[in-house]
Design goal:
heterodimer; A: 285 residues; B: 333 residues; mainly alpha; 13 helices; 74% helix
């Protein structure tokens, strides 16, 4: 243990945590969130009215669209953030420069990082405690957990189709395919929804995969995330057509390539359960 | 020795090597397949996994590698002779930067059109390469006396830098996933998953290779200097233009197919010259052949060494090419 504490990164982390604890104050009244999925969580637990600004990429819930924006992950507008006089800033774990600037300006921040599915509930409760909405956060987290457990109960004992979960490829072709691999919250969603991840041996959150790998791993179902809210027939055809080349893959042969529409499916926030239920419907129709 | 005999024997050896690589490469990969099943016509195509791995995943990949490799190597030979600079590459004159900018814009603007099975990214990158070629050509041709190789070089280097700045800008304003896709494209990739993109690039490469083939003797004379070449009856201005345009066209087609795969255009010509001397009648076809084999082997390494993950093929060629390039620099000085 001592050895780990001596490590500068760990020591730094401790310092940040201690600083956070020392600064723990009454519930913040002016929150700035630089992380879109955390913004959704804040609104879900009732802290929405306290949010005064969000990142450039925030679109949900609709209330945030009229709020001022203050940059994003790579280019937070520190001046604007400070000028809005926040008493809590939600930062992403990699925004270390911003965090030290906030530290010198004596502005408390909440350090968030993406992790697995359970981390959504953890984040809800932590933010609830931090923003003065512990009860509501607890309620929302329990409700979310209940829906997740319901899905788990429904798929328990059913045969798990071997599934490939794709979240990006070159339009109109099977080039540069990116898929969820054996770690992270997309993988968790897939497993919760009753699928067996064909890439579970790859210990990464995502991997670029070749056509040979798809042919060799023979998924029963291919789920493909598409940010569009709807596809007309022509679009759908151009999305589906390239798959016909891989006709020996069971998913293609049995017409079980499923496009999951909607930009919100992959947001680790309160809407995550909608994505899981969509996956469940596709895997266990 | 009779030169004709030498050309025939050297080229025969290179053909044999390249053909051997092209036959062997698709039989190797991360999955074990049975060649018996691959060619067994009695198994239905839809249930023949081995045949689909061979004909859908591996063969197009090997053919794309051969086409891109031979094109970049030959274009490298042409440009080194034209610019009379051994360090010239097919990317020196801004063609690949133009292509990259085109691809980047296609990714960022989410262009989703396709023509005859070729998607928007290759089409946009080919268009970008043509625009870059036109700009460099226009600048160099505005000099009264033919193409100035100095102007060509400077214009190319400047355009490279300028386009790179635009690429960074587009990347910066793009979304994360778009920027990632665009960056991945720039690392090169030959998993084309079908024959349509190869067929689309083929006409441009064939036209360019016909021009290359007619230029071998001229290149020998041009590499001794424009005035010397003119005194030996070379139509310097016309031939320089032909060399530049055909090399650029071929490079544009190759980059749109496989991305800007670096170092092929410089390693291969130099290795070949070390082996067979400097006569372009031998260097040009031998480089085209060896370039094909070399890139196919690099891609074989790319798709197997880190299995089940892949290494982008441009990373493999750069890892081999970087040290080689440095060695070449030291050796020459």
């Amino acid at each position: 243990m001592k050895r780990y504490l001596a490590h500068p990164a760990v020591a730094g982390l401790f310092a940040v945590v201690l600083a956070g604890a020392a600064l723990a104050q009454p519930a913040p009244k002016r929150i700035i969130s630089l992380v879109p999925n955390v913004t959704e969580i804040l609104f879900a637990i009732g802290a929405g009215p306290q949010v005064v600004a969000v990142s450039n990429y925030d679109v949900e819930p609709p209330e945030v669209r009229s709020l001022p924006t203050v940059g994003a992950l790579l280019d937070p507008d520190t001046e604007k953030i400070i000028s809005l006089r926040p008493d809590l800033v939600i930062t992403y774990g990699s925004q270390t420069d911003l965090q030290s600037q906030l530290g010198s300006a004596n502005i408390p921040f909440f350090d968030y990082r993406h992790a697995g599915l359970d981390h959504i509930m953890v984040t809800m409760r932590a933010l609830g405690a931090r923003t003065g909405h512990a009860d509501q956060a607890e309620k929302v987290a329990r409700a979310l957990q209940a829906r997740i457990d319901a899905v788990k109960a429904r798929v328990a004992g059913k045969r798990r189709p071997r599934t490939l979960l794709i979240f990006g490829r070159e339009p109109g072709s099977l080039r540069n395919i990116y898929a969820s691999a054996g770690r992270g919250f997309l993988h968790d969603m897939l497993v919760t929804a009753g699928g067996e991840d064909v890439l579970q041996d790859i210990q990464k959150e995502s991997a670029q995969i070749s056509t040979e790998m798809i042919l060799a791993r023979r998924p029963d179902v291919i789920l493909e995330l598409n940010a569009a809210t709807r596809l007309n027939d022509a679009d759908l055809k151009s999305v589906m057509d390239p798959w016909t080349t891989l006709s020996s893959v069971p998913a293609v042969r049995n017409k079980r390539v499923v496009i999951l529409l909607g930009p919100g499916i992959t947001v680790p926030g309160p809407r995550v359960i909608d994505g899981i239920e969509k996956m469940e419907k596709a895997l266990h129709p | 020795v009779n030169i004709r005999y030498r050309i025939v024997s050297v080229i025969t050896a290179f053909v044999a090597f390249t053909v051997a690589v092209l036959i062997w490469a698709p039989t190797v990969g991360t999955t074990t397949i049975s060649l018996g099943r691959v060619f067994d016509r009695s198994i239905a195509w839809d249930s023949n996994v081995d045949a689909q791995i061979f004909f859908v995943a591996r063969l197009p990949r090997v053919l794309a590698g051969a086409l891109v490799g031979s094109t970049l190597a030959a274009a490298g030979v042409i440009l080194q002779a034209l610019l009379r600079n051994p360090l010239a590459t097919p990317f020196t004159l801004g063609v690949s930067a133009g292509a990259s900018l085109g691809a980047m814009l296609a990714v960022t603007l989410n262009l989703e059109f396709g023509v005859l099975g070729v998607s928007s990214i290759p089409l946009a990158s080919f268009a970008g390469s043509l625009i870059a070629t036109a700009i460099v050509y226009g600048l160099a041709a505005s000099q009264r006396k033919g193409l100035s190789t100095n102007v060509l070089l400077l214009a190319g280097v400047t355009l490279n830098a300028f386009f790179s700045a635009l690429i960074l800008f587009v990347q910066y304003i793009a979304d994360f996933s778009e920027a990632l896709r665009a960056i991945r494209w720039m690392m090169g990739g030959l998993d084309v998953a079908g024959y349509a993109p190869i067929v689309a690039a083929l006409p441009f490469t064939i036209v360019s290779f016909v021009v290359f083939a007619l230029m071998a003797r001229t290149l020998n004379l041009l590499s001794a200097g424009a005035e010397a070449a003119a005194s030996r009856g070379v139509e310097v201005v016309r031939d320089q233009r032909l060399a530049f345009l055909s090399a650029s066209l071929a490079t544009g087609a190759a980059v749109s197919l496989g991305g800007p795969i670096g170092f092929i255009g410089i390693i291969v010509p130099h290795l070949v010259r070390l082996l067979v001397g400097a006569d372009h009648r031998i260097v040009l076809p031998a480089s085209a052949l060896f370039g094909a084999a070399f890139l196919v082997l690099c891609d074989l390494a790319a798709r197997t060494i880190m299995a089940p993950l892949e290494v982008p093929v441009g990373v493999v060629t750069a890892l081999i090419g970087g040290p080689f390039f440095l060695w070449l620099l030291v050796k020459r000085s």
